[in-house]
Amino acid sequence: MRVFSFLVAVLALAAPAYAQTTVVTDHAQSRLAPETDGVEPGGVIALAFAQRLEEGWHVYWKNPGDSGLPLDFKWTLPAGAEAGAIYYPAPHRIPIGPLVNFGHEGAPVFLTRVTAPADAVVGSTLDIALEATWLICADICVPETGSFSLSIPVVEKASADPQVAALFAGARTAMPTPLDGEAHYAVQGTSLTLDIPALGEDAYFFPDMPGASEPAAEQRARRKGDRLLVAIAGGPDLDALSGPLSGVIQFGDGEGAQSYSLTAERGAADGGVASTSPNAAGGSLFALFIAAFFGGAILNLMPCVFPILFVKAASMAKAASGEGASLRRHGVLYGAGVIASFAALGGLLLLLRAGGEEIGWGFHLQSPAVVALSAYVLFAVGLNLAGAFHVGSSIQNLGSGLVAGKSGDASAFMTGVLAVIVAAPCVGPLLTAPVGAAAILPPLQGLSIFIAMALGLAAPYVALSFSPGAARLLPKPGPWMDRFRQALAFPVFAAAGFFIWVLAAQTGQKGLAFAITGLIAVALGARLWEWGREAKGARLAAVGLLLAALVPVSLMKPVVAKEAAAGVIPFDPSDIEARRAAGETIFVDFTAAWCVTCQVNKLTVLSSPAVKAAFEEKGVAFVTADWTNRDPAIERALAEFGANGVPLYLVYPGGGEAIVLEQPLTERRILEALNRAAS
Amino acid sequence: MMKLSHFTAAATFAASAAFAGPAVDAPAPAFSGTASNGETISLDQFKGELVVLEWTNDGCPFVQKHYETGNMQKTQRIANEADVVWITVISSAPGKQGHADAARANELTAGYKAEPDFVLLDPDGVVGKAYGAKTTPQMALIDQAGVLRYQGAIDDRPTANHASVEGSTNYLLAALDEVSDGKPVTVKETRPYGCSVKYGS
Fold first, then answer.
1. In angstroms, how far is the first alpha carbon of chain A from the final one?
2. B25-196 belongs to which homologous superfamily?
3. pLDDT tens digit sequence for A4-13
4. Which ipTM value was assigned to this complex?
5. When you count CB atoms within 10 A of the terminal residue's CB, does the N or C end of chain A come out lower?
6. In the CATH scheme, what is the homologous superfamily, with its name and number, of domain A569-678?
7. b/e string for A150-186 if b means 16 or more Cβ within 10 A?
């Protein structure tokens, strides 16, 4: 070191007075060198701040990582002169115990530039002074300062100084190259995904903004076609990130590392996240609309939705002889009810996600209060269908409601709302992809997918209401219809029972007791309402009772501790990592009590002898990620696999990357994935 | 739909090995350990009181800035007047810069005329890692209910330059004021600055 310092000192003395100045500090030698032999009036001169650091010591990049400080320049310039930004060489990761810093070792060269005043006189000099402060650390840290001054000749025509040509060329080689191609990013909860051209597989992203990422967290990159998706753990300042995200992406490590500077647009801010959106994944927004529309239409056949729709259609048939215009108006109002409910639910979902909430489709069903209310509403509908009570213009006697006018309109709208309430838990495999996409697309596009779904749900009935000819094809109204309507009460009671079962899973015995009390209150309320035909006070009491039934609802709290049934491994990302490291094959079942599809899969495919035998034989660890109640860790995991709700099924082959099972889930798909795991 | 499944398969879990702090406005991680006065202290015993944690390393120039200018001592005095339990934490591993046994820790406190209630000796870094302490100095404020209300830098001047103390905004004191008044903390989390905490591993 001593010899080197001496040499530097001699060189410094030998150099022309204006050309460079060198400062020797305890752990570094630093010099400031201009690229050209002078500067033109109004011209720009590039300057290199070249350091040679003591071995084992490092200085910091503009984002220093977990600790440290970047270079700080304080200029003293003549009036009219301006100094530019500091250009840093590509950073390296420097681990310090469990922390990671971003910085430079060896001989980093930082570039900057100074602009001469336009009125600088040729033949004079541009006198500039720089006080540079840098924090230099090995295990310990020392702030160092150096003062530099240069007198740069103002010339007619500046030419490159050959003595520093190699220094500047080397500095530019060490800078990150601007990335050729588009870069996008999306934030999901506390992590961010960067979508870049796949110029390599092993990638690490250094954000310019400190606190945007967790420097010590490993980043996972996955190739998809010619794109690379890099999953990055967000840092404490991720929330503050709103516009474009700039930084350096590094492929490879050490000597052969390739670094590119990039500015990634936020997915939600522009036209979409290129490859993390299904848009660029090969499908199109249009395909999603179609999928959403048909998924919505199929919802009409679900056991929870069908009875309501049938009653609606039947009442229409009854009224078919009546006015076509009001029939159409009711069809449109019903459609409006469906669309408004879907838009409200979808809008709320997108809004909460934008606010950083880690939620997905079905999120409202994670609230015991919503589940209990759904059960009450369905129970009341069932009672109404069974004929236990009648409401003036209820869906039951909509025929008269049509004549009644306004209240009939409200009823048609409310039927639409009701259809969405009962349909929500039935959102099945056909809709998981559109719903998942909706959550990460820009808000307007996301909302439009929800609306496409709503149109699908509303379409059959609305179409019927617009074609009176088709309505006449329906069976003739008669006494059979009343009996059929009464029979339909029972699927609705079954749906109410399902919600009560979900509630029991969410809130335990206490919640169940509350819910049953509430159901009795609803039944009593219905009866009182009916008695109210003679005694007015009874109606008041009925309403009071129904309001009272809401009190226990507000008391319902999710049971936090999940009881792990024998042989069930609860979801824990670090446990999965540990099992993967141990080479275990893992099956992860993302499920929820309120998810009908999940329950059906559990009772059929997952319980089939073939699947059970295969799990047994291969010693598969069956992990259950139960999302019945809110769980940010599960939400994050779902988001990272592009899903926005349950079900989702993963197979980790012994130690390998996850395989996402395609849906609908079949025995064959599970067995194939397990066989791939085995081979 | 087939194409969509590619999309589903595209992303993976973000890695879990981040060295991140606990969440603000959530219960502060429990800890117990030996203080330089020989007492075993734990966070539980201070329920009902405000607690400040201060990570320190006497060899770190950023810590020296705050102690040599008297800024840290002044902050401690103001906290003392507000009946705060001030715990200075030394997470440097043996053999690393800033490591202190009880005797050395007490000498440092006396030498700086510092006024912590306790100096917690954390040579294995357990407390530091539980709080995601990355730098010295680094601060944490825990309220009477044991909820973490502030974590991060002591102020808004990320430099070791002594002159920078003048006119700085002390984030810890601002948070302390707000918590004492029963108000929500405006700046709950900042990026700490300084030397890395000298953990053993």
1. 56
2. Glutaredoxin (3.40.30.10)
3. 444 444 444 4
4. 0.78
5. C
6. Glutaredoxin (3.40.30.10)
7. bebbbbeebeebeebeebbeebeebbbeebeeebbbb
Would you state the structure tokens that stand for residue A671, as one six-digit string?
Answer: 């067995």
Q: Does the pTM exceed 0.80?
A: no
To the nearest whole angstrom, how far is the Cα of A255 from the nearest Cα of chain B?
Answer: 25
Residue pLDDT, tens place only, A155-201:
999 999 998 999 999 999 999 999 988 888 988 777 888 989 888 88
Touching B: A residues 542-601, CB under 8 Å: 573-574, 576-577
Q: How far separated are the first and last CA of chain B, in Å rounded?
A: 48
Q: Which residues of B touch A216 (CB under 8 A)?
A: 17-19
- A 10 A CB-CB count for B34 gives 16
**B97 vs A176: CA distance, rounded Å:** 34
- Tens-level pLDDT at each residue, chain B (201 residues): 233 222 222 222 333 345 677 888 889 999 999 999 999 999 999 999 999 999 999 999 999 999 999 999 999 999 999 899 999 999 999 999 999 999 999 999 999 999 999 999 999 999 999 999 999 999 999 999 999 999 999 999 998 889 999 999 999 999 999 999 989 999 999 989 999 999 987
Distances (CA, A) of A545 to A80, A529, B152: 80, 10, 52
Same fold, A2-175 and A569-678: no
**CATH H superfamily, domain A2-175:** Thiol:disulfide interchange protein DsbD, N-terminal domain (2.60.40.1250)
Query: Distance (Å) from the C-alpha of residue A165 to the closest C-alpha of chain B?
Result: 34
Architecture of A178-266 per CATH? Sandwich (2.60)
